[in-house]
Amino acid sequence: MEPQSYSSGERVFGPPRGTFDADWAATALRSNQQGLDFATSVRLMERAWELLRSRDLRGAALADALADADDSDKALTDAAAAVATEIAELYLDRS
Q1: Is the pLDDT of residue 5 over 80?
Q2: What angle do helix axes 74-87 and 22-32 make, rounded to 10 degrees?
Q3: In b/e form, how buried is each residue of 52-84, taking b as 16+ CB within 10 angstroms?
Q4: Where is 76: in which H helix or E strand?
Q5: How many angstroms separate the CA atoms of 93 and 30, rounded?
Q6: Most Cβ neighbours (<10 Å): which of 22, 26, 34, 50?
Q7: What count of other Cβ atoms lies within 10 Å of the Cβ of residue 28?
Q8: What pLDDT is stored for residue 9 in this prediction?
């Protein structure tokens, strides 16, 4: 099944603490990457989150690992890593 984006008004404040919502993260990524399709953005955010969680990567280290794992443009993998890192800092890393 093809992923579908949220409609207006849903998930205004982000996913519940301690969870990762690839659709919500993909929307954040697409807000900075004009022309990026939803399915690609979801795929990138899922891969970025998987690397973040399995290797405990953030920032540039996550961007490099994502670039190695994905055929996407380096600027796009950098942007996806930045979104994943920000989500982790806001929703995962806080004590």
Answers
A1: no
A2: 130
A3: beeeebbeeebbbbbbeebebeeebbbbbbbbb
A4: helix 74-87
A5: 24
A6: 26
A7: 19
A8: 46
Q: Are 88 and 59 in contact (CB under 8 A)?
A: no
Rounded to whole angstroms, the Cα distance separating 33 from 2 reads 20
Contact of 76 with 84, CB cutoff 8 Å? no
- pLDDT tens per residue across span 30-50: 998 989 999 999 999 999 999
In this structure, the number of other CB atoms found within 10 A of the CB of residue 19 comes to 10
Residue 70 near residue 77, CB atoms below 8 Å:
yes
Count, residues in the chain: 95
